[in-house]
Every structure is written in structure tokens, then in C-alpha cells.
Design brief:
The protein is of the alpha/beta class. Helices cover 29% and strands 18% of the residues. The strands form four sheets. The chain has an eight-stranded parallel barrel with strand order 1-2-5-6-7-8-9-10. α5 crosses α6, α12 crosses α14 and α14 packs parallel to α15. It is globular. It starts with 9 loop residues before the first helix and ends with a strand.
Length: 474
């Protein structure tokens, strides 16, 4: 098997930090928010799959975006090709890159109307013909008078039962059991690959700068290599979604993520780091030493391959992953870590209340959470410290303190049940700046160089010649 010879341009991908995952946002909403998104410090926006999928006047659930009917037209509940172009134009004016979620493993489950596996189905094709001029304006490529795929382009239908069998995972259908026919899985053929590459080329011509590969663990390495070849990958940030239950030695990591990392140069969601963070910050008997250099322990991906996160869209929106939702205060500490550390491309999830989960005040938990002042301060710190080295300052079972650059920045996290006071020695200058996250019980006394952290809190400092003296319980 020929490896991809053109690796991710690390400088390019890192320059696009931080990514806002505008999950299931209409394109017009993203367009309207472009200036505010830029002001918040984001450098890229990841949008839900821009393909043709089912829509209705009453709305359709988010998962319909992950059941494509056609690649050649953007027309779904979030908008159409014209809306998509207007969104790109608005974001580009703010120097924000557009990333798109790409669904190439399967097509829509249309068992009741499309037993023949014609995509788009005959009703959609008839609509194309009836409104030819309209759809021609929306076309990205190809002849809309003909189907994109037929039954010959799909593998034999059977539901995945053994999720530890790579062949079955990559050739079976994602389904809800024997009674559900599941999502028709595409074959790895020249025709399928060519259609998928035409779609990606069309998006790149419109200005798209990055691709998230949905359900990447369900696609063979050969398929990934053929689609994301040198031409498609050039000057483009590409990363796959391969959900695992942890890092090295874990079964899912060894079966799916390790081969992907070893045989491609593409990025990936850092699920190993996510589980390390969740376990370390949530479990009382877990020590913060696990976060000093998790990569060396096989508990995080390499810095230039990792998409880091505290939550993804799958976690709150699928019952099977709900136990992975962190409490609000733990999620805040996790964001402090991934936005404060060196390496990886942070992804910030923000939805329009697709999950129905509320915060402690009763409001939708992730609705416009990207506007949170504390999160925006973390992003500001990340952008100022980007590319600067990271060094351990202090660590106990409950406290982790590390610096960035030549003591230009400092991150302190207290996961414990007790407040702590961090005493610092600094050569104070008239232009020294400090930044404290807006959390109750967190304060900085510049005169005495004391940083106070309440229980379950964190802080980020921007200062000169910061030299910690000691860290003591309050």
C-alpha cells in the first residue's frame, strides 16, 4: 500500500488555530456572526456536512446532515450552495478558514423509498429535472440528470455486530440492530473515489481549507489514500474521526487508530488525550502527573497530528456516549489545559441546543458557549502563546502549573477540593500584563505575587520573568 507522500503542512494547520465547531448552524447564521467569531479569536470554523440531505419546513434533526443523498448539490436544512458561498465570503473577509465535515462512508438510509439504492433517489432526480435552472445554480460538479450512485456502488448489506473486527467495521453497515437496514456503505471503487475527489476539489475551489473525515474508522486505509491524495491534501488541513476508548494498549486504539496514524500523515481527533483529561480531572485518586507529558505515556497524539477537544458533537447527542460528558467545572479545566498547553489544534464545540442538555442554570449547555468570556480569555492566551515552548513548574496530585515561552505565560489548574495559593517571584516591569480567568475565588495580588485558586478552578497569567517560588494549600 502506497503511503500518502504529502504530509499535512504542520505550519499551515497550526496557523488555523483555534477551530470553532459551529455544529448544525445554518450557513446564514455563521455569515452573520463572522466578525464576532473573529473577535473571539477563532481562526477556522468547522461546519456540518455541506451536501444534499433531507430537509423540511418543520426542520429535520442534526443526524440528517450525516445521511447524504447527493454530493453534487449543497441543499439541506442549513442552506444551499449560494448560502454556503456567501458564508465563505464573509468568513474569508475576517481571515477565518472554512473547514467542512465530509461523509464518504455511506449514503442515506432510505429503505422505504429507495430499495433500489439509487442516489439521489428518483424523487430528487425528478425535482432536479423540474427545477433545472435552480439546481444548476447549486451544482458543484457533474450531470444532475443522472444518478451519482447506483446499487453497484454499495457493498453487500449486513449490520456491524463485532465492533472489534476491522473488516466488519469497514465493510458492514452502521445500524441500530437487525431490524434496521442501516446506512448503505459505499464500495471502494474508482467510480466512488472519483466522485468523492470531484466533490473535494469543488469545495477547495470555493475556498474550503480543511476537511474532517466523518466515520474514518469505517473506511479502509486504501480508500482514504486514494481520496486524500497529494493533490487534495496539498495546503489543506485534513483530520479523521476515529473514536477510541483511550490511548496505546487500548483495543480500539490498536485496531483502528494506530494503523491510521502509522499509514497516513493525516490528523486525528485526540481521543487518547480526551480520556486522559477526563480521568485525571474527574477521579480523586488520579494524579496531575498524567498531564505533564501524556504523549510519552501513549495517552495523547503527537502535537502535529492532534485535534484536541473537551467535547465533540457525538458525545452529548448520542445516548451511547452520554457518560463521557464532563461536569461543567471539569470541562472548563479541560479547556484551560488544551488551550494553555503547547501542541495540537484545539476544537471548540458550540451547538444550537441539539442535545437538550442544560447547564446548572437551566440554560442549554452548549448554546453559543463560544461567547463565554472565560473561554474567550483562554483562546486569547492560546493565540498569544502559540508556538512557544512549555515547561513544568509545579505538580502535586491535584495541582498542575506550567509555563509558556521564556516565562511569558503561565497556566495553573487546581482540580482539588481545597483552595491553593501559588506564591510567585517576578521581576515586575511597568509593562507587565496579567490575565486572570473570570472565576469565583480566583485572584492575583501583583504586589505580593500571590495567585489564589479556588477548588476546581484554573488561571492563566501573561507576565514577564515569572518565577514560581512555591505552591502551598490555602
Amino acid at each position: 500500500m502506497k503511503a500518502i507522500s504529502n504530509p499535512i503542512n504542520a505550519t499551515y494547520s497550526q496557523a488555523t488555530n483555534v477551530i470553532l465547531h459551529a455544529f448544525d448552524w445554518p450557513y446564514c447564521r455563521i455569515k452573520e456572526q463572522a466578525a464576532s467569531i473573529a473577535d473571539a479569536g477563532f481562526k477556522a470554523v468547522l461546519i456540518s456536512p455541506p451536501m444534499k440531505s433531507l430537509k423540511s419546513e418543520d426542520g429535520t434533526p442534526w443526524w440528517q446532515r450525516y445521511q447524504p443523498q447527493d454530493y453534487r448539490v449543497i441543499d439541506n436544512q442549513l442552506g444551499n450552495t449560494l448560502d454556503f458561498k456567501a458564508m465563505i465570503h464573509a468568513l474569508s473577509a475576517e481571515n477565518i478558514h472554512v473547514y467542512v465535515d465530509v461523509v464518504f462512508n455511506h449514503m442515506a438510509n432510505e429503505e422505504e423509498i429507495n430499495e433500489a439504492l439509487i442516489y439521489p433517489n428518483t424523487d430528487v432526480l425528478a425535482d432536479y429535472k423540474k427545477n433545472k435552472a435552480h439546481y444548476q445554480d447549486l451544482a458543484l460538479f457533474g450531470d444532475l440528470g443522472q444518478p451519482l450512485f447506483t446499487d453497484k456502488d454499495f457493498v453487500l448489506a449486513f449490520p456491524i455486530k463485532d465492533w472489534t473486527d476491522p473488516w466488519e467495521v469497514q465493510h458492514g453497515r452502521i445500524s441500530n440492530g437487525d431490524r434496521d437496514p442501516g446506512l448503505p456503505t459505499l464500495k471502494y471503487t474508482d467510480k466512488v473515489v472519483e466522485a468523492q475527489k470531484q466533490y473535494l476539489k469543488a469545495l477547495k475551489q470555493l475556498g474550503v481549507k480543511g476537511f474532517r473525515i466523518d466515520a474514518a474508522k469505517h473506511m479502509t486505509l486504501e480508500h482514504l489514500h486514494q481520496v486524500w491524495d497529494d493533490e487534495i491534501s496539498s495546503e489543506t488541513h485534513v483530520f479523521g474521526e476515529i473514536i477510541t476508548d483511550g490511548g496505546a494498549t487500548k483495543e480500539e486504539y490498536e485496531l483502528f487508530l494506530q494503523p491510521y496514524l502509522a499509514n497516513t500523515y493525516l490528523g486525528a481527533y485526540d481521543f487518547p488525550l480526551f480520556h486522559t483529561l477526563k480521568n485525571t480531572l474527574s477521579e480523586p485518586d488520579s494524579t496531575m502527573a498524567s498531564l505533564i507529558n501524556p504523549y510519552s505515556l501513549g495517552s495523547a497524539l503527537a502535537h502535529d497530528r492532534a485535534i484536541t477537544f473537551a467535547i465533540t458533537h457525538d458525545i452529548p447527542n448520542n445516548d451511547v456516549f452520554l457518560d463521557q460528558v464532563m461536569p461543567e467545572h471539569i470541562e472548563c479545566l479541560a479547556y484551560c489545559y488544551i488551550l494553555g498547553r503547547d501542541g495540537g489544534v484545539p476544537l471548540i464545540y458550540s451547538d444550537l441546543d441539539t442535545s437538550g442538555i442544560t447547564d446548572k442554570s437551566g440554560k442549554p449547555r452548549w448554546l453559543d458557549c463560544w461567547k463565554n468570556p472565560t473561554l474567550q480569555q483562554m483562546i486569547r492566551f492560546h493565540n498569544l502563546m502559540h508556538g512557544k515552548p512549555m515547561a513544568l513548574v509545579h505538580q502535586t496530585e491535584d495541582v498542575l502549573v506550567f509555563s509558556r515561552g521564556a516565562n511569558e505565560g503561565m497556566v495553573a489548574i487546581n482540580k482539588g477540593q481545597q483552595a491553593v495559593e501559588i506564591c510567585l517571584n517576578a521581576e515586575v516591569s511597568t509593562d507587565m500584563t496579567t490575565e486572570i480567568l473570570q472565576q469565583e475565588g480566583v485572584s492575583f495580588d501583583a504586589t505580593h505575587q500571590h495567585l489564589t485558586l479556588a477548588k476546581h478552578s484554573c488561571a492563566m497569567l501573561l507576565c514577564l520573568n515569572l518565577k514560581p517560588k512555591d505552591v502551598n494549600p490555602h
